[in-house]
Amino acid sequence: MKKVIVAIDSFKGCLTSAEANQAACEGILAKMPEAKVVQVPVSDGGEGFLDAFQAAMGGEIVEVNVKDPLMRTIIAQYLVQGDTAVIEIAKASGLTLLSPEERNPMVATSYGTGQLVVDAVRRGCKHIIVGLGGSATSDCGIGMLRAIIDAFAKNGSWDDVRELDDIRFTIATDVTNPLCGENGAAYVFGPQKFAQPKTTSSELIEALDARAKRFAQVSAKHLGRDCQNKPGAGAAGGLGYAFLQYMNADCRSGIDLLLDTIHFDDLLQDADLVITGEGSADRQTLMGKLPFGILQRAQRHHIPVILIAGRIADEQHLLAAGFSRVACINPPDLPLEIALQPATAKENIRQRMQRFQELMLPL
Were both Cys, which of 94, 114, 182, 213 would link to 90 (CB 3.0–4.6 Å)? Predict the structure, then answer.
């Protein structure tokens, strides 16, 4: 009996990790009913981070009234397990909370993420894990810090905040960019957060970057340290910087943090095959994205890994990196709007699994 591990990232705007895994599991069992299929919901810090950690560690989902990126009241969730909280910043400050025409990182705020932090602290959490991904903001975490100050500082100053002194923060992200400059938050990620990313002017991006530089300079002078160039500072529109600079957070690869939490290496001990994937796979997949993190773990145990995706580019680069097979789930003539329909994507994953000869071969 073969043991197959299925750990597929979400197909953004289409399927959650759990939905993609289930479709793959159904396809595998249809072809190989005797197989043992282990489904592992995964996320590298963005969409599905909360669900992945709840599947890994259990816990209670807590709902909180917070402000969205435009300061409208919404209900956001985070996870509590013992004295650990897991926050997915997109729940309060995410791009998906805004309609396309509302997107504007010049005004969007991370205030709601700060409110989630405040609630977790008030509940007695001592370790707060934060998944940084999918943000609508590029405010360097200023909104988040303001929410914390509003809750805890009587005199309206960060220096008066003492409630975080014994809290350990861990930020999870696949982004290693610094806060400022041509590789920073504004230049790399800013355009996608505007209503019309393809026509966003260079002046707006320069203004975002200049704002980040001013904040970093003031913060460094005030705190006596400067975290703007640390890996991850540019994540989530500079939220990574705020956690590093003001909360002395540890920065971890999101996928490594999750895989360690679920003891993924133990799951691999007697596995014969790993199936991973994402919505779109190309050479950027090899730059710390989730499927590559899974590949690296599996390679240590000499277990072959199949990569599936809704779109494939740079196939030879992916194969050279060590994936044993790279496969697109969609027929070449399938219109994008049809491919993105959840029912279609699930069926295509099921059918793709049934066409893999590797499932039947001795490995």
Answer: 94
